[in-house]
Design brief:
Length: 212
């Protein structure tokens, strides 16, 4: 179904991604959203809810607001991703053995990936946030395969110790929900939030560029 976009503003403030994640910046670039990267420096431990949806929303908001307070002219996107299994949040592994334990725990089982996204600015516009959930099932894995995967170095900057867009694709049996959410940025949810805020990303900038 094609929806009427009349009434959506065609103005695009400077866009900042408050994250150092190369996956997120690649996804924004892929859909034509020109942006600057300014990683937020926030406390990701204190006063964070244990419930995964609230957890990722709070951290996404903190990141967006930290950058927005320093760049009043910009529209800022904050994001946070966690892997959740058996009532426990799995963050980034601390070392090789920790990564192996995480992947072994996920092998042959289902887990959930939660990503919170928040938009702040420009100027004094209030922060708005939401989160996406995707179910992922890993195929059964032998320990030697787990060690081989971890030895690629891919897991160490990723929640749950894997990246679905890389060698980690070989671990995954099925995905239920938004694939891009597992990469760290639920694109459809983001575009809906941008549209609700009055911005016609991504096609507005692409059309404008083509006319130059």
């Amino acid at each position: 179904m094609v929806k009427d976009t009349l009434g959506i503003k065609n103005r695009h403030p400077h866009f900042i991604l408050a994250s150092a994640s190369p996956r997120r910046t690649n996804l924004l670039t892929q859909i034509g959203v020109v942006h600057e990267v300014i990683p937020a420096e926030v406390d990701e431990i204190s006063n964070v809810p244990a419930e995964p949806g609230a957890h990722v929303k709070v951290l996404a908001e903190r990141k967006a607001l930290w950058v927005a307070s320093r760049r009043q002219e910009a529209l800022v996107l904050g994001a946070d991703t966690v892997v959740y299994q058996e009532n426990e949040i799995l963050g980034k592994p601390s070392n090789f053995d920790d990564a192996c334990r995480m992947v072994e725990r996920l092998a042959g089982n289902e887990h959930q990936v939660f990503t919170g996204i928040a938009l702040a600015g420009p100027a004094s516009r209030e922060v708005e946030s939401s989160f996406e959930v995707t179910r992922v099932r890993f195929r059964p894995l032998y320990k030697k395969h787990i060690k081989l995967y971890v030895s690629t170095g891919e897991p160490f900057d990723k929640a749950g110790a894997y990246g679905i867009q890389g060698f980690g694709a070989t671990l995954v049996e099925s995905v239920e929900g938004c694939y891009f959410n597992v990469m760290g940025l639920p694109l459809t949810r983001l575009l809906r939030m941008l549209a609700a805020r009055g911005y016609d990303y991504p096609f507005g900038p692409l059309v404008q560029s083509s006319k130059k």
